[in-house]
Design a protein that fits this description.
about 280 residues, alpha/beta, TIM Barrel, Immunoglobulin-like, 2 domains, 4-stranded antiparallel β-sheet, 14 strands, about 25% helix, globular
């Protein structure tokens, strides 16, 4: 399903076709044009390209040209924003103040959008955060500019999803497994709210979170949450209200990691799926 049509359905709370999937690519590598594009055309599958504009402007090796991007656009692909320089958006430069940092991110966001519009005529105001990194301030900036944001944490999107950080399933590298992909393609969105914290940025390697699971076709008793394949501690602060506190004993390494919660849809072989992205900058 085309991403812009899917977002229209979700925002207007119009039911989607069963097992609807939107295919997205990030960056703008030439392999998308050379390999993926012909295959997707063969099966008449729409897709979206989140584009970092500077590598294409500079005609960097292994990236598409603007002529190739326009060919994708003319064939119906959605061309959307992945910033100009593919930055770590959380990082300050030099002695930047918080206000200066945010102004720089806003300027780069709008520059990339203007370039995409000038080159392709498209102006969807969709941003895929580079590296899937964002915080509360960046989400507020996107809202002010009328953008929809796309993250890199796994999960299905639904009517109650946060449209400033919609989930996406990665299907490259260690996630390039068709067997597990089938389960993900069939997943369903929890009706869940993240109450605390309001940002994925953390200063600890074992962060906790408070979730509110609203009424849905899932049994609260069957919700399981884990990270790196290991179960997290679940503490129901008020099960009647769906308030669940997650905590972890393990300290997680790396700059980014996730907590994942799932629950089965009875008698279907399908799962509700929600994940939390954590980011601990250096």
């Amino acid at each position: 399903m085309a991403l812009d049509i899917m977002i229209d359905h979700l925002q207007s709370q119009t039911p989607l076709p069963e097992r609807a999937v939107a295919i997205t690519f990030d960056d703008g590598y030439a392999s998308i044009y050379e390999t993926a594009f012909p295959m997707l055309q063969q099966f008449d599958m729409p897709f979206t390209l989140f584009l970092s504009t500077d590598p294409i402007n500079q005609r960097q090796n292994n990236y598409m040209t603007w002529d190739q991007v326009r060919e994708l656009s003319d064939a119906g692909a959605v061309i959307a924003n992945h910033m100009v320089y593919h930055p770590y958006m959380l990082e300050h430069e030099g002695q930047e103040t918080d206000d200066q940092w945010l102004a720089r991110q806003r300027a780069e966001l709008l520059t990339a959008e203007a370039t995409i519009t000038a080159e392709t005529g498209q102006n969807h105001r969709f941003l895929a955060y580079p590296y899937g990194e964002f915080n509360a301030e960046l989400k507020t900036m996107l809202a002010e500019e009328g953008f929809v944001g796309f993250a890199q944490n796994s999960g299905a999107a639904g009517f109650q999803s946060n449209f400033l950080a919609l989930p996406r399933y990665p299907l490259a590298s260690i996630y390039a497994n068709l067997d597990t992909a089938r389960t993900k393609f069939a997943s369903l969105a929890f009706n869940v709210e993240l109450l605390d914290p309001l940002t994925p940025v953390t200063n600890t390697r074992s962060p906790g979170a408070l979730l509110k699971f609203n009424q849905g076709e899932y049994d609260l008793e069957q919700i399981g949450c884990f990270a790196d394949g290991e179960p997290l501690t679940l503490d129901w602060e008020d099960k009647s209200a769906g308030l669940l506190r997650l905590s972890a004993e393990k300290e997680y390494s790396g700059r980014r990691w996730r907590y994942i919660c799932t629950a089965p849809l009875p008698n279907s072989g399908r799962y509700f799926w929600y994940s939390l992205q954590w980011i601990k900058p250096d």
